[in-house]
Structure formats: structure tokens, C-alpha cells
Write a structure and sequence with these properties.
This protein is mainly beta. The protein contains 7 helices and 43 strands.
Length: about 700
């Protein structure tokens, strides 16, 4: 959502320094109250001049341009409807999209003070973010939640960043910096009809800026508590019809559970070039690499793993208004070391097929080719045809030989304008896969717009998630030693798995009010999930993956309000409700809070001062975990009963603050931000770290 100016006569918007090693940080764990009040004091001091500026400006609203007084009186500030691309892989107004989409703008990102993508995503209604550790997040949608959530497709400019061989999304390690992002589009609900496998619960598509829009050099450095460092340097420009952009960056953070131990550290580089032809077509070439030499993850129910990895990618594409073809390659080179959590560490060791728990190699490669053609037939139909092929490989000492799979999909969709106010979008996709039978993923959406400011949508869709190469080809060993006697459990993949299936129904309303100064969005949904894949122990010495019996039904509602009470002030508030009924048992159960509330206010004054406050309330929740191994050791007296983890986590409230000052003709900015500024120390998952507060300082310069 963006702020624009328009004449009063029209109130409807058109649709249209790197650091090596962790920073030394003083240990304040013995003075939590002083730390908490120190955080609040710093933020209050930072925001005090902003508050004074707001009071001084109260008699006359601050202006955001240099236009004359007469021109300002003729103009009206309003919220403009976003243009999105994710629903159909082409541009369209958000109210005409056949799916539910939420947009996070570049300005939302800039003023958030966030250090990672999941923190930005907390504002989206229906999205669940769980911070497991300083280097590990789980992001899920509409109650389809678990410790290793892997049912959202992550894209960057339409290119998959989802590592489907292992079923994970690198939430902490984007190859692009926040400064390069134009907007983030969050599509809620199955989208397999366009994207095929993995677009199960939804899609998050990060749209980067055109290199021509980043003419010059931008530098940013942020540093703060828990050894947190985030730096970026971007240079972009154009030479005739050629646009280019280069970016480098460095990120790191200490562990929440140990301020002196590194949780995450990574260096990144990416580059992009595009060439515009006189005919209107464009060739785009891009590539990049992320080198993460420390990544602290929580895996399984009794393991923490350090997984240094190198993630590389390259893509070349040709695009026109109604057609594109894109070819890409990506590689993830991982070395994993397993650490059993206390108090089980003396008794349990988990490793590869040789029993080795350290430096376990995984090498994955993905090759992807996708093409789409969309064409308007008369004034009532737009037909879209598409196809894609994807080849994945996985090798390492924890899988059986070289594992590989082939995926091929074709799809057809028609957007039929039945009436001026009524549009029917219907499509279907067929996918083939080396390990499963062909699947068919339909989507139908009926959009009714009785008035330019009011839209109603009814939709239904089906999506599938195939087993990963780990689930079909894993070869693992877990050795348990009690009183000097050892037993080894063999964990192997299964080639008899069926794909997980989701059937989703949704109704949505979008309405603009107060001359486009406010937007209301209301949604109800019902999701039916079946054939859930889960690791199962069949005996003390053997385990595998299975489609567990039972289903999960998740239904809920979302309500949101976005508003612009003044040219310098913008806000939002939303509420999500979810109810889960299920017949699946054990670790396959879905879990999550029944209610979440998000809200925020952002202010920008023409004297360069700006401020942002965001609050997130997450209700208490229960998450399924395997407690059997803890109970076994407790029963025989090797660990205390208090060491058995509870599935329940309490509710918590995050208050994130940021205050900044822009100067030198808006080309430089200093800012201070506080994450969890109230120091509401909490766990977001029973096996996760206790999350504390963090204060950071920022400097950004555009040359």
C-alpha cells in the first residue's frame, strides 16, 4: 500500500564495512531489569524529538512536498491500490487477483528496523512466525504449523528459493538486501495451479527493484546487541538500454541462549543485468551466492544442528508483456553437524549412514525451465498457458547414493468477464513426478465488484506437496547408549509415499472508505489437509516416513484495517482466528495460536524525522513434539521428569520500535531500532530458544 496525491475531483485510485567474527558484547544476563529499562529509555530518548516535532506541527499538518499552498488545498492524500504479479504471474490490481494477497511495501521494509524476512512477515494476518533460534525460523500459514514447517513456496522475482530436495526455505539468508526490494507479495492459500508443487499453503514472492530505479550507490550498516551486524552495499545504473545492479552484504548474530556464541554469519553477493529491446522485450541475466559459515538450527525433537552452507544460483530469462521463458539453476552445499540437546547428550548420538554426527555433507542441485503465454481474446476472455520442467538431485552420506527426481507440469487458465461487475477465473494444472502418480490442481475464483470501491471474492483450490528427496532416500543412524549397552535405530526413506493434499475454500471482501483513506479486508477460509507425511518409528531399531492416517481441518477468519488519517501518519491493525480439528495423532498434528493481533503506526515529517511502532500479540498455543524419548530416560531415572518438554507455550507480545532522521536532501539517514522493546522474554516453540530484546543503530547513505 502506497501513499499518493490526487485531485479532489477523483477519489478512486488507478489500478495500476563488513565485519569478521562476532562483535564483543557485554553479558547483562544478571541484570534483566536494568537491560529492559535501558532499552525503553533509549527508544524514548530517540522518539522524544519526533514527539516534539509532531506537537509543533499539530496546528498545520506537515507537508511532504514543496508544492504551493493552493495546490495542496486542491489535492487529497489517499491510499493507492497495489499492483501485484504473484496470483497469475502477470501484473493486475490486487482487487482483481483470484487469490488473497497481502503486500509489504519498500517503505514498510525501510522503516521496520527488521534484520530478517520473518520479522517483516509478522504483520501479515494469518501468517505464523516462530523464531526457534538466532539462525532458524519456521514460517507457516493459517494453522498448518509445526516445528519444520515447509509448505510455503518462497520466490525471488518469480524464481524459486525453496530447497525442495530437503523441504526448506532459507528464511534467514536472502541473496538480496532489503534495500533492493520493491515489495513483498504474500499469497495466502494453495497456488499449485500456477506454481505446481510446493505452493501448498501459499507463496511469498519478493519483488526486487529495477536496476534503473537504483541509479547510484547505496550503503547501509546496522549493529547492535547480541553481536548483530547487518551491512549492505548496492550499486545500480544504466547504459543506454542496459540496466545493471551489484550487491554485497554481511549478516551475523549471536545466540539468544548464549550471548557469546555465534548463531548465524553469512556473506552474500548478487548481480543482475537486463537489456530492453525496441520491440518491448527484455533479456535478464542474474546470479548470486550466499556463504553462511555458521547457521544454528533446531532439528528434530532432540537435536540442534550447525549447518554451514553455500547457496548459489543463476538465471537467464526473456520476457514480454504476455510471454516469458526462464531458465535457472541453484545449488545448496551443506555440511551438517548434529548436537544432541541436554540432558540427552550423554545417551543419544544421531548421524549419517555411518553413524558420524559431524560434517555430514549434502549437495543439492536444481535445474528449472518455465514458460508462460497469456493472451486476451476479445474483451471478455484472457487465456493463460504455461509449462515447466524441474530436475532435482541430492547426494551425501546421509542419503542412499545419488538421489534425483524429475517434475513436469502444464496448466491452462481462463479469466472470463461474465459481466462488467463479475469475473470468473478457472484453471487446472497437471503435474508428473518421478515418485508419485500424476496430480491435478484446479483453482476457481468468482470476483464480484458491484462498485469500484468494493470487491467480493469466492474461491476454491487444490494443491499437492510431494515427498522430498530426504523423505524418499534418507539413510540415517541414531545410537542410544544406556548403562553401557547400545542400540542403533536405522532411519530410511520410503518410495511408497503419496503427496500431501490440501483442499481450500475462501471468501473475501475488500472495501475502500473515507475517500480512499481506509481499506477494510475480511476473509473466512476452510482448509482440509490429508495424507500428511511424517517420520514414524516402526520399531526400536527402524524408522521411516509414512502418510499417517487421519486428516486436519483448519478454519478461521481474518479482519484487517489500513488507514491514513493524515498525510504524515499511516497505520494498520488486523486480527486472525484459527480453529483446528483433526484426527491425525502424534507429531503429525497441527498446532498454533487460536488468536493473533497485529498493529502498527508510522509517521513521516517533512523535517526528516520518522518513527515506526509495531505490536504483535500471539496467543498461547500447543505444538506437537515427540516426548517419548525424554519419558523413557526419565522413567529409568537417567534424567529428571522436569526435563521432559511441555507442548504448551504461553502467549507473548512483541513491541518493535524504530526512530530515524533523514538529512542531506533525504540521501542519508540515522536510525535506532528495538526488537521486543518491552523485553517480554518468551519461547515461540517448546523446543526453541528464549527470545529477548535487541537494540540496534543504523546508518544509510545514498550517493
Amino acid at each position: 500500500m502506497r501513499i499518493f496525491f490526487r485531485r479532489v475531483a477523483s477519489t478512486r485510485s488507478p489500478c495500476v564495512p563488513r565485519c569478521h567474527g562476532p562483535l564483543p558484547v557485554a553479558n547483562r544476563s544478571n541484570s534483566p531489569l536494568a537491560f529492559r529499562y535501558g532499552v525503553i529509555a533509549i527508544i524514548l530518548v530517540a522518539l522524544w524529538p519526533i514527539t516534539c516535532a509532531a506537537q509543533d506541527a499539530a496546528p498545520s499538518p506537515p507537508r511532504v512536498s514543496l508544492q504551493t499552498e493552493q495546490q495542496l488545498q486542491e489535492e487529497l492524500v489517499f491510499l493507492r491500490e497495489e499492483t501485484v504479479v504473484t496470483a497469475n504471474w502477470r501484473e493486475q490490481p490486487i482487487s482483481e487477483a483470484p487469490s488473497n494477497i497481502y503486500v509489504i511495501s519498500a517503505e514498510d521494509i525501510r522503516q521496520s528496523g527488521a534484520t530478517d524476512l520473518p520479522t517483516l512477515l509478522r504483520r501479515v494476518p494469518g501468517l505464523s512466525v516462530i523464531e526457534m533460534s538466532g539462525g532458524d525460523f519456521n514460517v507457516s500459514m493459517r494453522g498448518d504449523n509445526q516445528q519444520r514447517a515447509n509448505r510455503i513456496l518462497l520466490l525471488i522475482d518469480g524464481r524459486s528459493s525453496y530447497v525442495d530436495t530437503q523441504g526448506l526455505a532459507p528464511w534467514k539468508t536472502l541473496p538480496v538486501s532489503f534495500l533492493e526490494i520493491k515489495q513483498i507479495e504474500v499469497l495466502k492459500g494453495p497456488a499449485s495451479v500456477i506454481y505446481g508443487f510446493n505452493a501448498f499453503d501459499g507463496v511469498i514472492n519478493i519483488i526486487t527493484k529495477d536496476p534503473r530505479d537504483m541509479n547510484g550507490t547505496t550503503l547501509q550498516a546496522g549493529a547492535g546487541e547480541y553481536g548483530t551486524v547487518r551491512t549492505a552495499a548496492i550499486h545500480g545504473g544504466k547504459a543506454g538500454d542496459l540496466g545493471y545492479r551489484l550487491s554485497i552484504g554481511h549478516d551475523q548474530q549471536q545466540q539468544w541462549r548464549d550471548r557469546n556464541a555465534l548463531a548465524f554469519r553469512a556473506d552474500r553477493f548478487n548481480g543482475q543485468m537486463n537489456y530492453l529491446f525496441n520491440s518491448g522485450g527484455m533479456v535478464r541475466v542474474e546470479g548470486g551466492v550466499i556463504d553462511a559459515n555458521r547457521a544454528d538450527f533446531s532439528s528434530g525433537d532432540f537435536l540442534r544442528i550447525n549447518s554451514p552452507y553455500t547457496l548459489s544460483y543463476a538465471r537467464v530469462s526473456y520476457e514480454r508483456d504476455e510471454f516469458f521463458v526462464r531458465a535457472s539453476w541453484s545449488q545448496n552445499n551443506v555440511s551438517t553437524s548434529n548436537e544432541t540437546v541436554p540432558p540427552l547428550a550423554p545417551f543419544v548420538v544421531s548421524g549419517d549412514k555411518n553413524g558420524n554426527p559431524f560434517n555430514i555433507p549434502f549437495l543439492t542441485n536444481s535445474y528449472d525451465l518455465v514458460s508462460q503465454y497469456s493472451h486476451a481474446i476479445g474483451s471478455t476472455h484472457r487465456v493463460t498457458l504455461g509449462a515447466n520442467y524441474r530436475h532435482n538431485t541430492l547426494s551425501g552420506t546421509a542419503v542412499s547414493g545419488l538421489s534425483q527426481e524429475n517434475r513436469f507440469g502444464v496448466y491452462l487458465q481462463d479469466e472470463w468477464r461474465l459481466l462488467q461487475t463479475l469475473t470468473l477465473t478457472a484453471g487446472i494444472r497437471m503435474d508428473t513426478h518421478s515418485e508419485i502418480d500424476p496430480t491435478y490442481s484446479p483453482r476457481v475464483a468468482l470476483i464480484y465488484a458491484p462498485h469500484p470501491n468494493h470487491t467480493f471474492r469466492l474461491s476454491g483450490s487444490v494443491a499437492y506437496k510431494p515427498p522430498t528427496l530426504v523423505e524418499t532416500n534418507a539413510d540415517l543412524r541414531t545410537t542410544t547408549t544406556i548403562f553401557g549397552f547400545s542400540t542403533t535405530n536405522v532411519g530410511q526413506g520410503s518410495h511408497t509415499l503419496k503427496p500431501e493434499r490440501i483442499t481450500s475454500y475462501e471468501a473475501e471482501y475488500q472495501g475502500w472508505f473515507l475517500d480512499h483513506r481506509a481499506r477494510v479486508r475480511l476473509t473466512v477460509f476452510d482448509n482440509h489437509i490429508a495424507d500428511i507425511i511424517e517420520a514414524v518409528g516402526l520399531s526400536p531399531t527402524f524408522g521411516t516416513w509414512m502418510n499417517v492416517p487421519g486428516v486436519a481441518d483448519i478454519h478461521g477468519a481474518e479482519a484487517g484495517l489500513e488507514f491514513l488519517p493524515a498525510s504524515w501518519l499511516k497505520g494498520y491493525v488486523n486480527y486472525s482466528y484459527q480453529s483446528i480439528s483433526q484426527s491425525v495423532t502424534g507429531a503429525a498434528r497441527r498446532g498454533g495460536p487460536r488468536s493473533t493481533v497485529n498493529g502498527g503506526l508510522r509517521a513521516n515529517w517533512d523535517n526528516g524525522l520518522n518513527a515506526d511502532a509495531a505490536v504483535h500479540y500471539v496467543g498461547g498455543a500447543s505444538y506437537p513434539i515427540r516426548t517419548e524419548i525424554y519419558s523413557t530416560f526419565s522413567t529409568i531415572g537417567l534424567i529428571p521428569s522436569s526435563a521432559i518438554p511441555s507442548e504448551r507455550v504461553d502467549s507473548y507480545t512483541l513491541l518493535n520500535l524504530r526512530g530515524g532522521y533523514r538529512f542531506w536532501n533525504q540521501r542519508a539517514e540515522v536510525a535506532i531500532s528495538a526488537y521486543n522493546s518491552l523485553n517480554d522474554r518468551h519461547r515461540e516453540h517448546p523446543l526453541g530458544d528464549t527470545i529477548g530484546s535487541r537494540v540496534m543503530g543504523w546508518f544509510t547513505l545514498t550517493l
